[in-house]
Records
---
Amino acid sequence: MDLKSGYPFWPIKNGLIQSYPTLAEDLRSDVAVIGGGITGALVAYHLAKAGVGVVVLDRRDIATGSTSASTALLQYEVDTHLADLIGMVGREHAVRSYHLCLEAIHKIGRLTEELGDDCGYMPKKSLYVASTKRDVPALRDEYEARRAAGIRLDFLERSDVTSRFSFDYPAALLSYDAAQVDAYRLTHALLRAAAGMGARVYDRTTVAKYEHEADGVTLTTDRGCRVHVRRVAVAAGFETQQYLKQKVVNFKSTYAFISEPSGPIDGWGEDGCLIWESARPYLYMRTTDDGRVLVGGEDDLFDSDAKRDRRLPKKTERLMKRYNAMFPRGPIEVAYAWAGTFGETKDGLAYIGETPEWPNGYFALGYGGNGITYSLIAAEIIRDLFTGTPNPDAAIFRFDR
């Protein structure tokens, strides 16, 4: 599967930060991580930091799959409203999942400090606007549900929105816990640090065969090299479903563009907060640390790479039209546009942990709009599963929920 179309900005901005060798020999280790994107990097880093032997294998160059197309908005809100999620999975798990995502935002910030590279991490507020008047009651319910869960946020009436921003929406929720990051740069920083702790990283190495054995797993690559490990952590993102009989994800395409540097945008209040909306699919916007605007949305069902490619120009045009309607005093020019494949689950929660389909395997499937926060949660759960450390949060994301 080709996970992206067009020209994602992050590899262009950063270049090829680091290349790794292709595996050319047999290896033994504790855990093999399949996937060298942001999820695999977080898993590898947490395992290596815990003293676990790690081998990372990716069939591409590092961070050039869906990570390169990530818009990297860090939000605690899952794609399902908390008020609705409570009815789907129960109050305890719903509230805890929101708090885990909230905590993950700040943990990622602390990680960048540990790494000695801010990776474009910037704490932000997040504005969730009611797309129509019909959505206002649901936003009020969501406001009450989050407040009852101890989450700090404000309910903005129309007059509050119009006084702070150049656009007019009937209501909005203003959250105080959000951030943005450069996921491509963060992936490289994490793997560089993991390698410094003994992890071995190999790119352009495809896993062709998985053999479960009494003492672990043997992976065979496309070049015939064998990697024997006690456990395998699958962090291959949206390409993982092809290896699972259990249907856990619906694939969609999302489209985005980033502008030429423009500086502060007139009418974008709250210090350039993240912006998204209640409509489904939703529009989302953020800025960058070098003064650009990133706009995404126009999601549709994924049917083929070629069709997604053909839709990109028209989708970019529509996104620009939406932006101009919201910020008429902040003209921008498109620098790069791209599309990426992503997935949604039935309840908006990730799938993390073990499945009977893959003996001695762990999965880190952070599907949804806040995949990076899920990836951090997955890294902690997989580390704890391997080291035998109790982690009650693993039950929230189990495959048999």
---
Amino acid sequence: METDNNNNNNDTTTQQQTDQEEVAFIDPNEGGEELIIDNKEEMMDDDDDGEDVGIEGEQEGEGEGDESMEEDFEDESVQGFFEHTDSVYCVAINSVHPDVIVTGGGDDVAYLWDRSTGEKVHKLEGHTDSIAAVKFNGDGSLVATGGMDGYVKIWDVATGKLTQNLEGPSEAIEWMQWHPRGNIILAGAADFCTFMWVTLKGDLAATFAGHSGPVTCGNFTPDGKRVVTGSDDGSIRVWNPKDSTCMGVIQGHGFHENLITSLAIRNDNYLVITGGEDHFACISNINTGKCVGRLTGHSDSVQIVAFSNLNNFAFTGSSDGTVRVWDIATFQTRSILRHKEGSDITKIVPHPTQPILYTSSTDRTICVWDERNGQLIKQFKGHQDSILDFDITPDGSIVATASDDKVSLIFSLQQPQQ
């Protein structure tokens, strides 16, 4: 439902935007860097399963989350937040003030709380349906909440006061993203449209209309000059945020055959990976409007995708309980990372500065992997139901979770040795 750039926690320093400043959007004629892919014009297929380096034997049993887990229940968390009265759907860590956490849930409220003490700081009330997404802006002063009631609300982090109630969507918010360099927010909705607001004024700056199904995922490119959205209609669209025009559509033969669940945009601003219910992922060049590679091998829906911040790798997480690491140059599987068989992978977050990958699953665990060889570094347990979302601090040492068990937990790890 919610999708981010290369990682879901881009901690790029945000320049505070005044009312008069204009966010730098793209010149439609601007080109991209050379694509590091063999054969740009012809689509390639990968049927190589790669090296299976999943959790095996004793380690595999640790993450299964079956009935025996109740008897052998372990809680490795160092802190928790227990105020929610329904499932916790989303969580975010303030990248500037990492002791500040926000969570949103099925109880229609969000909370700002202290990571060190687990105590509530502010209760954010006003939504009339479940909160599906929460995001801090770049300087950590504002937090946005997106609800299934169709509203995006902006709150002052220091006071907990509502600063803007952003209107436009007629149906549920599917995802939200802040502009990487300004107080502009983007949200996709179930009403087939994507909306962009200037949050300092509360003005609706643009509506991107053209999909024929709910807009399930999307984001700004990392330079902030284009918007990319994916939909139930099986297409991705590239938009000019200055005038809301559609700059290109990728769909049809060789692309996805069913709804698109997730997308990520690489830091080069033009390479996009999409996951679909058709069991595969596609890599596309949005400058040329071509799908340049199709990643096959999963046996169920690809629910979440990401790019490495350091290596020429892509990651796909599936309802088949596995995460695959792909070599983008060859479209081959490098390794397969296994959670419990039959579980859904719910999120993938690459470390911003190290070759480390974090994954969550409905098997109730967070796993930390070496993305280069697929080896398991650490597995965190503590939840009694599915983990739906998580976030990491900028240094990767802290993980905050959101779960169906109505709880958010904090896990801590020493920086992995490279």
---
Amino acid sequence: MSKQRRSNLSKPPTASSEKGLRPTGIEGVSVSGEPEIAKAAIRVIAIVYDGMLILALLFLVGTVLTVLGTMMTMETGVTSDQAQTLPAWYRNLVLTPAFIVTLIGFYGLFWRRAGQTLGMQTWRLKTVDSQGQLLTWSKTVKRILAACVVPVICGMIGYAFHNSRSAMLFSAFFGLMFNYLFCLFNRGGLAVHDMLSGTVTLKMPKIHHEGLFKSLRKKK
């Protein structure tokens, strides 16, 4: 990777691209400040918001697929007691890929349309590429995979040392938090997956709306 490409990945969007992200030309609305790199704490809070939505969505997908899987298993002559546990092939080839597709679809649809999920919208966060543009599907997948690199490595290390699922999950969670703690030590304020995917999450400026009576007086 050339020095020029490295510098591009470690820099936030240019001033011109950030300027294009500001809402303009709306009567009765004023914007204070410019977009800036989002702080780690705000990003983690937004993840907690989105996490609750994702868990509910995964629960719904899992419930539907579990019911379908149970019906398929029972049709092969297995008793209802045995069908309570789905076969390993169904969990590995159907449930796991479905959860992955659901996760990618959740972030992909939101990032492609507006650059922000519902949790990010609450805190005025927006994810864009290094040029300030909305993410493509390839960029979305790359960003999600980049966010999984450190948690997967930490999870594997935790499992190798303690050989338990709880240790693996705790280590993976630590890896996820490290992605954002890295912002504190990075001069540009970027997370690990920001740098690996060439994307950035911005804190958008606050929009001030005029009151109803003030707007009516202006129209007169």
---
Amino acid sequence: MSRRSAFRGPEASLDEQIESYSVERVPDDKRWPIPAISLVLLGNATAMFFFSFGAQQTFLVGWPKMLIPIGYFFIGAIVIGALTMRMTSREGLSQGLISRGLGFGSRGAAIASFIYALNFIYYFLFEGTIVSHALAYYFDIPIDSIAGIGIFALIGLVTIAFVWRGMYAMSALQTWGFPLFVGLMVWALISLGSKHDVAGPGAWEATGLSGGAALMTAMSFANGQMIFQGLMATDYGRFASRHIRYRGTGTIMFLELVPMFTIIFLGAMLGSTLIGEFGAEKAQDPGFVFVHLMGLAGVAFVVITQIRINVMNLYGGSITLASGVDAVSGYRPGRPWWMFAIWLFGVIFYATNVINHLGTFLAITGVLTNTWVLILLADYFVCRRWLGLGRSEDIEFREGEVREWNPCGLTSLAVAVGIGALGIFEVYPTYYASFIAMFVGPIIHVALTTATKGRYYTPAVTR
């Protein structure tokens, strides 16, 4: 394999590129090399969100205590990503499709798909909001004005054009987009050094009491990201070779996380440097930070970076919505059209200021997403591969070949989410909610699947 071909996907028709096997298996001859998958994932690794995340962790617990949640995030994401990617690459199925066979049923999996889609809608909204902030600071356009909403909507539509051809379009975008990101990031750091006394790790201090509650809040935020980043990588990992080993899937995760954690630490440095002059809210807002450091070039930096990450949010969201709606109704308008649904929800949520409820949203999606993913892993690795309660290869997903509703996964998810909801409603501390739910769900699922001897994997026998 030549160096150039290692960073490119296989030949594919235009229809194959556009649909990206959203409702079927990825054929063995359409798999991608590890470097090519890692190139696409660079867009996610350098998202503006992680500048905010790094500053947020610093303001919660400071240095060096922030290394605890960040270390947990790093190690956990590699483990979760390696496991889920190994599972989806062997099967060539998206998370939505594989959920049909792994404990939820052909229609029950739609619930999981819609849970997953919520994450992409939120991150599409978050990244787009950062662009609106940058334009508001530079051009004095009110964020919640008609003009602000229009700018958000317009840039979102432009982004759709960049991802119409799926993985192939994203690969081309990251080929030129990542070097441009690096160049602009260097410019921003030079500007930071010329305008401010840069805060080293010793000056990365918490802004409040950094006791046990603050640490657990930081851990809770890291926990949600750990699962989601590992999960998001599998949308692309399903294109990896069916015979890839854990070393290969772990390598893909490692190559994504190294630049991601570089951004997290840069976010901590930027936030700690600017907080004294501008306050915590602006210091952790990339839309303000880069406009302050670079002026109009900062606006361009934010816009380009937002497009590089939001192509992935649109792609991932369209894959999971295509699978979910297909499971419920059999309706297949084509994957690209679901990107417009993600865009429309994003515009509506932007106009109604859903972004102001960040903490509540992350708590809810953390409980839902974490529990679902851990149930999938428990089903595949424990119920099937260890206990032998169902087939461990060529997991069935087609309607008529699996139950419409598998009560084992659905009951486990419902009970665990119910327990997590008690935390969200502050019956117990909210920061425990995602941890408790993600452990309770898989335990119940394994118990139920074992008790029923795996009979809900296959359709009911008609007499």
